[in-house]
Amino acid sequence: MKHLINLAIAAGVFIFTKTYAELISFNSIQISETNLLEQTLVIAFVIQWIAFIPAYLLQTEKFYDLTGSLTYLSIFIYCLIATESIENLNLSNLLVAGAIMLWAVRLGSFLFMRISKDGKDERFNSIKTSFSRFFMTWTLQGMWVFICSSAALVAITSPTGVMINNLFIVGFVLFIFGFVIEVIADNQKNKFRSKEENKGSFINEGLWARSRHPNYFGEITLWAGIAIMAIPTFVGMNFLALFSPIFTYLLLNHVSGIRLLELRGHEKWGHLENYNSYKKNTPKLIPRILS
Length: 291
Prior knowledge:
By secondary structure, this protein is an all-alpha fold. The protein has helices spanning 2-24, 36-58, 64-85, 91-118, 131-156, 166-194, 214-230, 243-255, 258-269, 273-281, and strands at residues 30-31, 34-35.
């Protein structure tokens, strides 16, 4: 029964994402009887399903995050090649696609090196042994890639391509700000964990003294920046793609990311007075500006 439920969820995820793609792609460039935006949807999911096969056979999650990043690269490279073939490639398309690809390469390599060092990701301990649950997880990653990218994809695959104006510049600055915050936060935590004296301890220094999850604040911020960069191109139903940064926030704050880390942190350090004090006095997501 559980297997049927997991497979039904995977099917529901695909149907939901496909419906969302159809709604936001009404003016996407047509290529071979289908529009370019919906083609990227198919690519995103097919990559996950192909990667799932060796992952399940080998019972490994080591290239799960790396595959997610490679999927971002694949769909945006495909979009740039497809738009170039019809003389639509421009600097603004390159800026938006390049920003996302830069983020994907940085995050994918960071997570891959981390799991290579740790040997495993504890989130997958019970998931990878179940065919249906593991398949569902890979399918969810396809949805994550497409919806997070959707605002940028709408703009790049539109007949005009991404348009540069003051709103675009605001979004680009916001992307850079979020990207820098995420990189600094990840590096600070990685450096903290590499010290033997910090083994088994929680980090409460640097950006982590101002927010319990500054890396996720950075990620949410950069995707908001990407959405704002895309807005000048939007018309009609395209504005539904503003769901992209909202989806990122909901996913990181209420599904994976923050929710799971808060639960794990409570299990590890909930009995410690200094940890409870840290939680009480440190914002969960938005960094405290003043000390």
